[in-house]
Write a structure and sequence with these properties.
Elements: E1 6-12, H1 30-34, H2 54-59, H3 65-78, H4 95-101, E2 144-152, E3 156-164, E4 171-173, E5 178-180, E6 183-190, E7 196-207, E8 234-237, E9 247-256, E10 259-270, E11 272-274, E12 279-283, H5 292-297, E13 301-313, E14 317-332, E15 345-359, E16 362-370, E17 376-386, E18 390-399, E19 421-432, E20 436-447, E21 458-472, E22 475-489, E23 492-509, E24 512-524, E25 528-541, E26 545-556, E27 563-564, E28 567-568, E29 574-575, E30 578-579, E31 582-593, E32 598-609, E33 616-628
Parallel strand pairs: 12-14
Antiparallel strand pairs: 1-2, 1-33, 2-3, 3-6, 4-5, 6-7, 7-8, 7-9, 9-10, 10-13, 11-12, 13-14, 14-15, 15-16, 16-17, 17-18, 18-19, 19-20, 20-21, 21-22, 22-23, 23-24, 24-25, 25-26, 26-31, 27-30, 28-29, 31-32, 32-33
Length: 629
């Protein structure tokens, strides 16, 4: 009965000092990080296989170093991956590896008549205990995070996630919503059976249309290489540690032929700033309940959400509608000096129509949504693909100031949801002989109503040029420049120009690999600022034991010219920290396979820097064991 049941158990046994993790168990584009665009729930972002870096592929621990090298060479030779079946042409890619790989990556439809893999990124299955003290708060203590997943392929999947911030109390009090750790989510997901495509009890998330009501693929915004539309609508389990996203309750998806329909009901409590017994001002997203003031805001307001969506999948397109209704246990009343057009009260709702249609090399998509108050939001676009090497995208958006949604995530300049914004985005991606990759965009936007930090309408425009030249298989140079202009106040316009340059050189022989990276960025506004980073990394990748060592020196004028780097981490995790000031960082990661069932990781890092007059020293240590039955 349990022959195919996989149970992964991972234990982080010991951590010394303060642990600093900027991004945990989620894949996203590095360019998004350079823009500072870090969504709360990174584990929920779709990752396109054509954008995957070798570091991304290494992190999921499915492919060998030889497999990754073969994949990169194949993609460099033939360009965009347009079908999951194409992966079988890559040496070493078995059906089992491809099936596992498509659990973490998706292949977009774009403008090709191929069936699309709809597998979105999901978190790796494990149970891990983490100790964490965020550098921003400099709060001492231990941060525990854990996850465990039981998976019987093709039949069901169940999981548990918990999160305990430093200073939070372990206790069991159902009346207060405590079940041991400060935050817990659980799920049970039934796999396809007859007309039941999926059934979930516990925590889940919903993707519909282009994200005007629920989540979509645009939430990386302009930070991604090119924003691409969602391929399909679906409901799946919620495996994120984020305490402010997702739903909790029950959901079911039925499908027959080309039709699919889903329904859900959810009740979830969220942190909120309470004004009195019946009113609250806003939701809180930090998830920190280490002091008495934050504990009073913990799970203070409940949200009951009921909704469904129906979608038709034709030969060349998808069309559907979605309806969602939210009822709060308290009244939402904003504390504003000006009259806010956003709706207030305890009852909210949204309805939308969405679809996409493909004609030859043209892909068109849209979604239009409305509130009961009559406020609307819409987004539409077109993508044109001229072969594998050239792609254009035009995206139009208009969100009225009174439109409101709790769960929507997508393309937005402000990053605060679909409200009070309209704009036009034009971007393209061009590859020349597999050596030169050019990605550029221009965006013109208007924020017509009052907003945070602005007491009048704001008009702005920005553009970016991203050029990557691959000298040979192991050496590339990247140049990135961005120009932004925005009205800061009436009669006051301010321009901001940023440049980023990157040189990456890989020396590889047999199982040994050395990587040298130089990064430089400059920011020109009222005062010119700059920052640079030099990194040297040595990798020894044996089948039984692998070593990853890095030494890095950085120097920046301010926080605004900080540098980002990608770091491998223990299984199911990676780090994308940023550095500013002057200092250095040393890093060591060791992975050892004791036998077929037991694998261990050891990770140590030291950062010494002086962002202010008084410097600081930060240690990290992780020991992790994974046992698979």
């Amino acid at each position: 009965m349990f022959r195919n049941l996989k149970n992964s158990l991972t234990i982080l046994a010991w951590v010394i000092g303060s642990l600093h993790v900027h991004a945990q168990a989620g894949l996203l584009f590095e360019s998004a990080l350079e823009e500072g665009n870090l969504p709360d729930a990174m584990g929920e972002l779709p990752q396109y296989l054509q954008e995957a870096t070798p570091e991304h592929l290494q992190m999921i621990d499915i492919l060998t170093s030889k497999d990754i090298e073969e994949f990169i060479q194949y993609r460099r030779k033939f360009g965009r991956i347009i079908s999951p079946y194409e992966l079988q042409a890559i040496p070493g890619f078995t059906r089992e590896k491809i099936r596992s790989l498509l659990q973490y990556f998706m292949i977009p439809e774009l403008a090709f008549n191929y069936e699309t893999s709809e597998g979105f990124l999901s978190r790796p299955e494990s149970l891990e205990f983490m100790l964490l003290a965020e550098k921003q708060t400099a709060r001492p203590g231990i941060h525990f995070r854990g996850r465990m997943t039981l998976d019987k392929p093709g039949q069901w999947k169940a999981g548990l996630r918990f999160d305990q911030d430093p200073g939070e109390t372990w206790k069991i009090s159902p009346a207060q919503g405590y079940w041991g750790a400060d935050h817990i989510n659980v799920f049970f997901q039934k796999q396809p059976s007859g007309i039941i495509e999926r059934m979930i009890i516990g925590d889940f998330r919903v993707h519909t249309g282009q994200g005007l009501i629920h989540q979509g693929s645009f939430q990386l915004g302009k930070g991604s290489n090119l924003p691409l539309p969602s391929a399909a609508s679906f409901i799946t389990y919620h495996g994120s540690f984020s305490e402010s996203s997702g739903m909790s309750g029950g959901a079911i998806t039925l499908s027959k032929g080309r039709w699919k329909t889903s329904g859900y009901i959810s009740f979830r409590r969220r942190d909120a700033s309470i004004y009195n017994d019946k009113t609250f001002r806003s939701f809180m997203n930090s998830g920190d309940h280490s002091d008495q003031a934050s504990q009073k805001k913990r799970k203070a307001v409940g949200i009951i959400s009921i909704g469904h969506f129906t979608e038709y999948h034709g030969t060349n397109g998808r069309f559907g509608y979605a309806i969602n209704s939210d009822r709060l246990t308290h009244n939402l009343a904003y504390d504003r000096m000006y009259k806010d057009p956003l709706p207030e009260g305890s009852s909210f709702g949204q309805a939308s129509l969405f679809g996409n249609y493909r004609y030859r090399n043209l892909l068109m998509w849209f979604e239009i949504a409305a509130n009961p108050t009559g406020s609307t939001a819409w987004v539409s676009g077109v993508s044109i693909s001229a072969g594998r090497n050239l792609e254009w995208i035009l995206l139009l958006r208009r969100y009225q100031p009174g439109y409101f949604t709790f769960y929507g995530k997508g393309f937005s300049e402000t990053g605060s949801g679909f409200s009070n914004e309209r704009g036009r985005y034009l971007g393209f991606r061009y590859s020349i002989r597999k050596k030169l990759l050019l990605v550029a965009y221009a965006d013109f936007y208007l924020i017509p109503w009052y907003s945070y930090r602005h007491n009048t309408a704001v008009r702005g425009r920005d553009g970016r040029l991203d050029l990557t030249y691959t000298i040979h298989d192991h050496m590339n140079v990247r140049l990135l420049s961005k120009v932004e202009k925005r009205d800061q106040s009436p009669g006051n316009s301010q321009s901001l120009t940023t440049y980023r340059h990157q040189f990456h050189w890989v020396l590889k022989k047999n199982l040994h690999e050395m990587r040298i990276r130089v990064q430089y960025n400059m920011r020109s506004s009222l005062d010119a600022e700059q920052g640079w980073l030099l990194s040297c990394e040595w990798i020894i990748d044996n089948p039984r034991t692998s070593w990853n060592m890095r030494f890095m020196y950085f120097r920046t004028d301010s926080y605004y010219t900080r540098e980002f780097t990608f770091e491998r981490d223990v299984w199911g995790s990676f780090s994308l920290p940023s550095y500013y000031g002057k200092g250095y960082r040393a890093f060591l990661l060791v992975r050892h396979r004791f036998n077929r069932s037991l694998t261990g990781w050891f990770r140590w890092a030291l950062t010494v820097s002086s962002p202010e007059k008084s410097g600081y020293r930060e240690h990290e240590l992780k020991i992790q064991l994974k046992y698979t039955i």
